[in-house]
Amino acid sequence: MKTLLFTLLLLPVLLFARSGIVSGLPLPKTYVLNLDPYECDTDCLEDLVEHEQFFSLLAQMPEPIEDEELNEQRLIYVALFNIDGAVIGTGVRFALLLPERVIGRYAASTTNSVLAYLLGKNRDFELKTFNIGTESPDDIRAGLSAVSQDHFHYVIAPFTKKGAETLVQLRPRCNVYLPTVNIADINATELEESDGHFYFGGIDYRAQIGKLVENATPPLVIFYDQSALGEELKNAAESAYMERFSDNDPRSYDAAGRAVYAYPIDKRTTNLKHILDKNERLQHGTFLLNTPLIKSAMIMSQLTLYDANATQVLATQIGYNSMLFDITQPLDREHMLVANSISKQNGVLVESNKLLQNDIEYDWINYATTLGVDYFYSLAAGTPREYTIPIEDHQVAYPVTLYRAGISKFALLDEEEEDEGSLFE
């Protein structure tokens, strides 16, 4: 009897064990009927939004109208309540290839990014995840084989640089988008032999560093994490800085004859006294941070603590995070400039992602994933893209914009300030 009872209790767990595929059952549809005999003009519709009468809004506004803000509200609620829409067509099919042991939480968040986009389209779709565990050649090969057997032609693959290199070498016949890797990080010869099936969405950190360093004054002090990419970006910053000046230009050197000081910061480093305290060589320098956000906050607080008198504090995309304002003091951010490549957002997709506890406003990997599924969706469904950011030579061509880290938010650095030369006078 106890065995039978245990089996019955275990049955629901077995039934709901994790699967690698989103349920094949169609999502339930919601239908809204308009029972109001009177027409609702724009003022009336705005009043419905203000009073959160969502279903009345959908009933009175079954189709898009000229008012863009009302249309955006309508699309948000259509996606939220899965309203049966007028768009009917062949379903689109996407696969996610996930090395979940390597990418951790991004296995879930990139899946949510794709799902939020597809739900907002209000069209039949199939989304299947292939959890391959690691980025070993055998695991990737097995995942690609499964994708091929199920006849998927569009694949989103959030891989590391190492996994991406392996993936390119295997030369799959499907179209693969890698939101986490920039094309510049992949061997050009391997790409040429892959027959153009790969698309890349990784941020161009080199372009960000180049634009940041344009505003640097000597000496340039670089703090970077101890990784292969961190070392590479440190070298890129040094080269970009030195290119600003001729070899004989004294402005590129400090009083000690040094142009650049670079310090690797490992995970255990919590005190920079040995670097910053009473170090006259670093006084009034430009500090470039290419470190994780928490580590950057630690560095910024100690720049203030040890009176480094930083002329500027520069940060790449890693610094563009709303959490920055929670973990740093306004004084630490007083001269901070952040490079960002997340451009104008689609409000409907932002809200759809929030419903799934997902962030595409500050998390660049989720944002890049959204750009990739948007591009593939336009190819698969033959519809216009939601985003205007171009794909050039198989790479998302991100803009680079500079922001001040203000009291409570990031403020766009306008063109007039950039043209003036000194940003902090």
How would you portray this structure in words?
With 425 residues, the chain is α/β, with parallel strands linked by helices. The protein has three domains: 18-81, no CATH class; 92-202 and 343-393, Response regulator (Rossmann fold, 3-Layer(aba) Sandwich); 206-340 and 401-420, Rossmann fold, CATH 3.40.50. It is 40% helix and 15% strand. The chain is built from 17 helices and 14 strands. The protein has helices spanning 2-15, 42-50, 54-60, 68-81, 100-103, 106-121, 137-149, 161-170, 188-192, 205-213, 228-243, 273-276, 293-305, 324-327, 347-355, 364-381, 415-420; strands at residues 92-98, 125-131, 154-156, 175-178, 198-200, 220-225, 260-265, 286-290, 312-315, 336-340, 391-392, 395-396, 401-405, 410-412. A seven-stranded mixed beta sheet has the order 7-6-8-9-10-13-14, sandwiched between helices. Strands 2-1-3-4-5 form a five-stranded parallel beta sheet, with helices on both faces. Strand 8, helix 13 and strand 9 form a beta-alpha-beta unit. Helix 4 (68-81) runs parallel beside helix 15, helix 6 crosses helix 16 and helix 10 (205-213) packs parallel to helix 11 (228-243). The termini are far apart. Residues 1-19, 85-89 and 415-425 have low confidence and may be disordered. It comes from Sulfurimonas diazotrophicus. This is Periplasmic protein.
